TrEMBL record:
Pfam families: PG_binding_4 (PF12229), YkuD (PF03734). It comes from Candidatus Anaerobutyricum stercoripullorum. Keywords: Cell shape, Cell wall biogenesis/degradation, Membrane, Peptidoglycan synthesis, Transferase, Transmembrane, Transmembrane helix. The chain crosses the membrane at residues 20-41. Pathway: Cell wall biogenesis; peptidoglycan biosynthesis. This is L,D-transpeptidase/peptidoglycan binding protein. Residues 346-466 form the L,D-TPase catalytic domain.
Length: 467
């Protein structure tokens, strides 16, 4: 009986203790719940602020202090940095009830589950900047100082005169900021209260589009080198003129998309100067007469004329081939010789002053004869200059105003109808006949002399007419 009483007493004592423990736990749980009714759960982080065990009021106070002390470091290229603090941009905390809302979401009676519930709120605080202050501060940053800013430059090709070749120059990144993008990125970083913003990592720099290893740059450089490797030698028989890359490179340009262009206008200018130097139609010639007199004669239709348009086109094509070549230019008009003295050693010479004509063939005089030229008293003088035989024909009738004259041999040398022919109606030649009884401009020639010329000359051969 005594043992049963002892067991009963021990049992009651155990229940009593358990009840006390339970009561204590309930009280503690209630007290903690009451505490978390006014405080955030442990580990709560709002916009980077550690808010655990703090009341809403204390968190607001902490945030205001944090905003007042806040600054952001802007990391720029070339190792430069600059800071912006909250006062410069008018950064301020907006008490819009978000903190209370977060606190309400944390049910105080559920505090025991806090290890498993959400405790990070990156958007739990509303901050604002003063737009005017921000705009002014932003645009006064050193990052936008014109004296400190370098624009990006694409890689490009530079001509080396010593080597007559192009080398690729590495691109320049510079430090030009994309203003619109960075304006927004910096503002967002400030509103998040980030400690640092790197313009490079934010992708807010303008960068070169084409780098030294870009395919377009490499191909463009190769093309430039091919073009300047051209060596074009113009052949003028006893003279040559060479065009090399040292001149050609001045005509080359590269587009923004790295297409190589040959400046057609500059090429045309070169051809124009080539023509000025080597064209001979109508130029003044220093001519030694068959009888040894030094004569200056200009005008006429005989000589060489470069076809400038055709030659410019051909020249550009030749440059693009990038080869060494010796060639003649494209001609619009040809002569019998391409030497500096393009009259050569087969030609007709008419001396108006002495009224004499010679036919010189392959360096030998075949004809030497007096003639009658255009009537100077009537303004029909034979035109001076260097011409060429247009064609030759026999049994021909010369016609003009109020006359028609038959000739056996006709060799015209101007397009206006002046030429060499026999004149059966004349019995004498030479002297001063031309001054009062001259022709309409033609060279009246004794029959045997004109026949000899006719039988030994072909079209295109020169006729030199001078005083």
């Amino acid at each position: 009986m005594e043992q049963k009483e002892k067991k009963a007493a021990a049992s009651w004592s155990g229940k009593k203790k358990a009840g006390v423990v339970v009561a204590a736990v309930v009280v503690i749980y209630a007290l903690i719940s009451i505490f978390f009714h006014f405080h955030f759960f442990p580990g709560t982080e709002i916009n980077g602020y550690a808010c655990g065990f703090r009341s809403v009021g204390k968190v607001k106070e902490m945030i205001r202090e944090g905003v007042d002390a806040y600054s952001i470091t802007i990391t720029e290229r070339e190792g430069r940095q600059e800071k912006v603090n909250s006062s410069q941009v008018g950064l301020a905390f907006t008490d819009d009830g978000k903190l209370e809302q977060i606190k309400a979401e944390q049910k105080p009676y559920a505090w025991i589950t806090f290890p498993f519930i959400k405790k990070e709120y990156p958007d739990g605080v509303t901050l604002k900047v003063d737009e005017n202050a921000y705009d002014e501060t932003f645009h006064s940053l050193d990052a936008f100082d014109a004296e400190l800013v370098t624009a990006p430059v694409d890689a490009w090709s530079r001509y080396n005169k010593e080597t007559n070749s192009y080398d690729i120059v590495e691109e320049i990144y510079g430090n030009t900021v994309k203003e619109e993008e960075f304006y927004q990125a910096l503002k967002e970083a400030i509103l998040r209260q980030d400690g640092v913003i790197d313009i490079e990592k934010a992708g807010c720099y303008e960068n070169p589009v084409y780098k030294k290893d870009s395919e377009e740059v490499i191909q463009s450089n190769d093309t430039l080198n091919r073009y300047v490797s051209s060596d074009i030698i113009y052949d003028f028989d006893d003279r040559t003129q060479e065009l090399t890359g040292k001149t050609i490179h001045k005509w080359l340009s590269v587009t923004k998309k790295f297409k190589v262009r040959v400046d057609e206008e500059k090429a045309a200018k070169y051809v124009e100067k080539l023509a000025e130097k080597y064209d001979t139609v109508g130029i003044e010639r220093h001519f030694t007469s068959i009888i040894g007199n030094d004569v200056d004669v200009e005008g006429g239709t005989y000589g060489w004329t470069i076809d400038q348009e055709a030659e410019t086109e051909k020249l550009i094509k030749q440059i693009k081939k990038g080869k060494q070549v010796k060639r003649e230019p494209e001609y619009a008009h040809y002569a019998k010789s391409r030497k500096k003295n393009d009259i050569g050693d087969t030609y007709v010479e008419v001396d108006l002053g002495s009224q004499y004509m010679w036919f010189y063939k392959d360096g030998k005089t075949l004809v030497s004869t007096p003639v009658v030229t255009g009537n100077t008293s009537l303004g029909r003088g034979t035109p001076t200059g260097v011409y060429y035989i247009l064609y030759k024909t026999t049994d021909y009738t010369l016609t003009g105003e109020n006359y028609a004259s038959h000739v056996d041999y006709w060799l015209p040398f101007t397009h206006s109808g002046v030429g060499i022919h026999d004149a059966s109606w004349r019995s004498s030649y030479g002297g001063g006949i031309y001054t009062y009884d001259g022709s309409h401009g033609c060279v009246n020639t004794p029959y045997n002399a004109v026949r000899t010329i006719y039988n030994n000359i072909e079209s295109t051969y020169p006729v030199v007419v001078h005083w």
